[in-house]
Every structure is written in C-alpha cells, then in structure tokens.
Specification:
Number of strands: 11
Number of domains: 2
Structural class: alpha+beta
Strand order of the largest sheet: 5-4-3-6-7
Shape: elongated
Order of helices and strands: EEHEHEHEHEEHEEHEE
Radius of gyration: 20 Å
CATH superfamily of the largest domain: Glutaredoxin
Distance between the termini: 38 Å
Length: 220
C-alpha cells in the first residue's frame, strides 16, 4: 500500500509512551506530524528525537501534535529516552508508538504487508524503510510524505516551513514560492479570480504573468 497526498491517514489503535491511543481520536481537530524510526538506540534517530523535543513549542503554536514511532516496545522507548536526554539535552515530550507487531509500519506502507514476525530480532537495516514523515491535516488527510535514508538526519525546520505554507493556503488561499520563509511574499492561487482577489487583498498585488500574482504575506 502506497499512501499519497490526499489519502485518508489510516486509523489504528496502538500502545504509546503515553498509554493506548486511537490515532484519529488522538489527533482530534489538530494537525499532526507522525515520524518513524527503524529501531531504538540508533544514532541519527537519537539526534532527531531530541531536536523534535526542543521544537515542540513551535509545533504547539501552530496547533500541531507530534507523535513518533519505532518498531521496538514502549519500555525500550522509555530507556532510550534517557539516552536522548543525556546526549541531546531534551527527552521526548510527545508520545512514541511501540509498533512491535509492525502493524502501523505496514499500514503506512513503510514495510511490506508480507513482512513476517515481530520487532524481535529485526535489525535497523531490516527496518531501513521505516524513516518517514507524514503530515496529517485536521481532516485526517495526508498533506505531506517524506522518506529519508537512515544516514541522513531530518530537517524539522523544513517541516515547520511546510506546515506554515499549508496553513497559509487554507486560511488565505495563497501558495508559497521556492525557498519561501515566513514574512516573504506569497502567490495568489490560480483558483482565486482577480475580482475575488481584489476583495481579499485590497492593497493590491504584482502581476508577473496572469497565472503568477505576487502579494505580501497576509497577516493572520
């Protein structure tokens, strides 16, 4: 199963470091970042989990819940958390799913459905494909999918940037150009007519092409 942008994020029940959750109920009316890891006590993931803990206030400000996943048991996550705090200066302050039966990894297409057994005895290389980021909207639709190799740490500042862009689109019907950062000019989406744009953006805009209309970033 390959999940695409626009698909409904599969629902599931799972044990986490915060207790048992039903995923869709846990998300509620918020946005969500689900990021996965091939194994506990792996070096690159250790840095990622610590970084995400430090960035959590930024996700909170945007109404985004964070949840991690590793195929190891929840009690191993708790032990790993101590190492993360010691080496990275922050322990995970968000739930971590224990996916010992590989159910969630298979449900999200990170491991093949025919993968047998449990997490017991599996190596990081066996689970190398469990290195994804899914951003899920309040409607439970998948808005972003990123897949990383084990050797490359993820850029969570980029995840925040993409969420900022998507939330701007939902609120103001604008898109963001290449390498956009907060406060820079944005693009009026083609679906908005000039007539409607005049009401929405009374300060005007710059028309580079009929399909490319640039406007200052709207205030929230």
């Amino acid at each position: 199963m390959t999940l695409k942008i626009g698909d409904t994020a599969p629902d599931f029940e799972a044990s986490t470091t915060d207790g048992v959750i039903q995923f869709h109920n846990w998300i509620g009316g918020d946005w969500c970042v689900l990021f996965s890891h091939p194994k506990d006590f792996t070096p690159v993931c250790t840095t990622e989990l610590g970084s995400m803990a430090k960035l959590k206030p930024e996700f909170d400000k945007r109404g985004v819940k964070i949840i991690g996943l590793s195929v190891d048991p929840v009690d191993r996550h708790a032990e790993w958390s101590k190492d993360i705090e010691e080496t990275q200066g922050a322990a995970p302050n968000y739930p971590m799913i224990g996916d010992t039966d590989l159910k969630v990894a298979k449900l999200y297409g990170m491991l093949p459905a025919e993968a047998e057994g449990t997490s017991e005895g599996r190596t990081p290389m066996d689970n190398a494909t469990v290195r994804n980021v899914f951003v899920i909207g309040p409607d439970k639709k998948i808005r972003l999918v990123l897949v990383y190799p084990m050797s490359t740490g993820r850029n969570f500042d980029e995840i925040l940037r993409v969420i900022d862009s998507m939330q701007l689109t939902e609120k103001h019907k604008v898109a963001t150009p290449v390498n956009w950062k907060q406060g820079e000019d944005v693009i009026i989406v083609p679906a908005v007519s000039d007539e409607d744009a005049a009401k929405k953006f009374p300060g005007g805009w710059k028309t580079l092409k009929p399909y490319l209309r640039v406007v200052p970033q709207p205030e929230d």
